[in-house]
Write a structure and sequence with these properties.
By secondary structure, the chain is mainly α. The protein has one domain. Helix content is 73%, strand content 0%. The protein is built from eleven helices and no strands. Helix 2 runs antiparallel to helix 3, helix 3 packs antiparallel against helix 5 and helix 10 packs antiparallel against helix 11. The relative contact order is 0.14.
Length: 291
Amino acid sequence: MPEKVSLSPLNKTLLFAACIIVGGLPLVIRWVPDGTIKFVATLLVVIVYFLATLYLRNKQQNEAYWHLAFAFFTLAFVQLLNGLVPYFALDVLNQGPVSGNPLASTVSGTIIVQLLETFIAAGSVLAFAYLSGKGHSSVYAKKGKMRALFALSLIAFVFIAFIMARHSSRFIPINGVFTFSRFLSLAPALLVLVISNGFQEEFLFRGLFLQRYEAFFSPVFAVVLQAIVFSIAHLGISYTPSAALFTLLFVFPLGIATGYLMRATKGILTPAIFHAALDIPIYLAFLSYVS
């Protein structure tokens, strides 16, 4: 467990607000339409966050401060690398995003892009965790308690997959006629995509930050804080015309639930599976536009 830092109620409130701003900034920059401006702005944020980490570390105060700053640097660094993925999809795979699928224009391209983003996020989080001297346990990179909550997550995964296989057209915008046989043909790709994204976002938003936040806040406030930053990351999504409503009704509750699951099981596996379950409708819709 991280070393606790004693703060006054006012300072805790100010730090809470600062974490939202600092965590949200590299995510908001992704909405900039010009690719060059977006890259330069994100690079500047990465540099500033890294310098802030060095400054706090050299002050030799409670190490929780520089570890938190380093976590924000990691988040910004991942956004910088992710900003290059669309160019990879377009220039290397020749499969740029299409309407209805923000990843790529084919099933194989969608899988490659998703796996690349997961490798960038999970690889960066784990690498920087070791560089900071904390190791994999500090980002919950372990299976955790394999008990009732894990079983419930698996049940949720199977249940949602079954509902989507039978009644997907009722719940999500599907391109073309969607039959059970079509679902089965897409099932292997769908499984890879949702599991990959589940681990990607759990590493980046829960694993990276929960223990760092808990050095300053109660577990409840730590979970709420990461859910807010997680929600900011989804406000600029293009696959739904109601991004704000989607974020409020789906993304924020998902962040709360997976934050609870990660803390309760002390591992990433259960929240990643639960996250993947709720991603099934989204990625099924993506695949329907490129299959």
